[in-house]
Amino acid sequence: MSENIYEKMTEKIGLGGSKIIPELFRMVVDPKEAELLMAMPGTPAQLAEKLGRPVDELDRMCRLLYHKGLVFKSFKGETVGYRMGRDLIQFHDATILWPEAPQEFLDLWQKFMEEEWPAFARMADEFLPKPFARVVPVEQAAKAGDQKILDSESVKKIIDNAEVIAVTKCTCRVIAHKCDKPVEVCLQVNNAARYAIDRESGREVSKKEALEIIRKAEEAGLVHITTNTSHVDHFICNCCSCCCQTLPLVISEGLKLNDPSRFEARIDQTTCTACGTCMERCFFGAISETENSDGETIMKVITDKCLGCGLCHVTCPEEAITLVEVRPVDFIPA
What we know:
By secondary structure, the chain is α+β, with helices and mostly antiparallel strands. It is built from 16 helices and 13 strands.
C-alpha cells in the first residue's frame, strides 16, 4: 500500500497540503483501513465486492471505524452503509470524542490547531460566503429588551422542540485544556444526538438537564454557538475564548468564522454604575470604559465588535444591559 494514501485522505476532506492531518490519519488507521475509507461510500457488501475482500471482515472494520469517528452511517431502507467524514469539522469533532483516543493523538490534534489551522481558517474566511456557525444570544438579555426572538435564537425553544438531546465533551477543551471552564457542555440535538448516543461518544440527557447545562455554561462565561441556519437540528456548543476552534481567531484577527446574533448590547446609563464587570466578562473587547460630557466614568459598547452573545447581561449587578435587535430576520440563512 502506497504511503501517499494518507495524503489522498487529507485531500478528500479539503486539507491538501497539511503535514499534520496525514499523521493523524496514520495514527488511527492502518493501510487496509485506509484503503477501505477511500473506497467508501457503500455497504459492507458493496465495499467487499469493490475491494475483493470478505464481507465479514469489512463489516467488522466499518464498525470499528465508526466507533473511532472516521466514518458515518448512511441508511437506504433497512440497509446500513458507511461514508468517510466529509470535512475537517467532522474529522475533528468525531475522532477527538473517540472514547479510547490515545493522548498522543489528542496532542497532535492540538498541534494542528496551533500550527496549521489558522492558515486554513484565513482561507475559509476569504472564500466562504457565510460562516458555518453563529452566536445564539443569552435569552433573558434579549427578553429584557422586549425583542422578537425566533425559535432558532432561543436555546430554550431549541431544547423544547428537540426529539432527543445528548451532551458531549467540548472537543476544543479536550485537546487544548487552556482554561478551567466546564468540558461536558456541548449539546447535540436530534440526529446529532442519536449519533452520539449510538457511538457512545455522548450521553442522553433530559430537557431539564439540558437547560441546567445551559444555565451553568452562561454562568461560567461560555458563548452559545450553533449552526448558521434558521432551522437548528444539530448542536449547541458552549465556547470559551482560548480553546475554541474559531473564537480566538475572531478575537485576535477579526476573521468572520462565526456570525453574530441578530442582537447587540445596549447599556442603560441611568442605572449603570460603571463597575466594569461587563468589560471583564466580554470575550470580544466590545465594552470599554470612557467618560461622559460631565467627566463621569461610563461603560460604552463598541458596536462593531459586539457579537450579541449577551454574556455581559448575565452578571451585570444593576441589570443595566439588554440586547436590542439590529439585524433583520433574513440575516440568518434559511
